[in-house]
Amino acid sequence: MSSFHAVAIPTELADSVRVTMKSPKYGFPAHKEVAAGRAPCRHCLEIIRLHEEEVILFTMDAFHGLDVPPSPGPVYIHAKECARYVEQGGIPEPYRGRLLTLEAFGADRKLIAEVRAANSVEESIAEELLKRSDVKYIQVRSTEAGCYLFRLERN
User: Fold this and answer.
1) What percent of the chain has pLDDT over 90?
2) 76-128: pLDDT as tens digits
3) How far is CA 87 from the centre of its chain?
4) pLDDT of 59 over the 80 cut
5) In angstroms, rounded to a whole number, what is the distance separating the alpha carbons of residues 1 and 91?
6) Is 127 helix (H, G, I), strand (E, B) or coil?
7) What's the confidence (pLDDT) of residue 69?
8) Which residues pair with 142 in a beta bridge?
9) Distance between CA 57 and CA 79 in Å, rounded?
10) At 6, which helix (H) or strand (E)?
11) Count H helices, E strands: the chain?
């Protein structure tokens, strides 16, 4: 049993982007198109089907509500409504064995550690990082693209 769970973006945020086609907080236009490359949805945490499903690309602050200053970056969601990822233990299946960067943050958004995971060791890396009392949460990023994927929190 894992000691942590993945946290997806809130449904209210995804719904707002789908309705307004604008980035929350910033008001930048969102972009919608048929998925032309690997596009992980930050709401359901599934991979959007290439050449089949539409994606919305928008700017989001992965630290909103957690810490300041903001750190905006590009993220995808399904253009059509999808169910929010159910918070369960461990790294979500579509991301296991992928090249991930785990960024462990402490108080005042201090970066405690940044570890690149490969060869399916992301679970053990996250477990070790979250054993540290100075780590509040972990942000998981794509090592290849550098973009925010989801947050890890203790159970």
Assistant:
1) 87
2) 999 999 999 998 889 999 999 999 999 999 998 999 999 999 888 999 999 99
3) 13
4) yes
5) 12
6) helix
7) 84
8) 100
9) 9
10) strand 4-7
11) 2, 10
In sign, the C-alpha dihedral spanning 120, 122, 125, 131 is negative
- Please tell me the distance from the alpha carbon of residue 103 to that of residue 34, in angstroms, as a whole number: 30
Using CB atoms within 10 A of its CB, is residue 122 exposed (0-12), middle (13-18) or buried (19+)? buried
Q: How many CB atoms lie within 10 A of CB 133?
A: 7
What's the token pair of residue 146? 């550098």
Is a pLDDT exceeding 90 seen at residue 3? yes
Per the listing, tokens 């919608």 go with 32
What are 38-57's pLDDT values in tens digits?
Answer: 899 999 999 999 999 999 99
Neighbours of 68 (CB within 10 A): 10
CA distance 64 to 128: 25
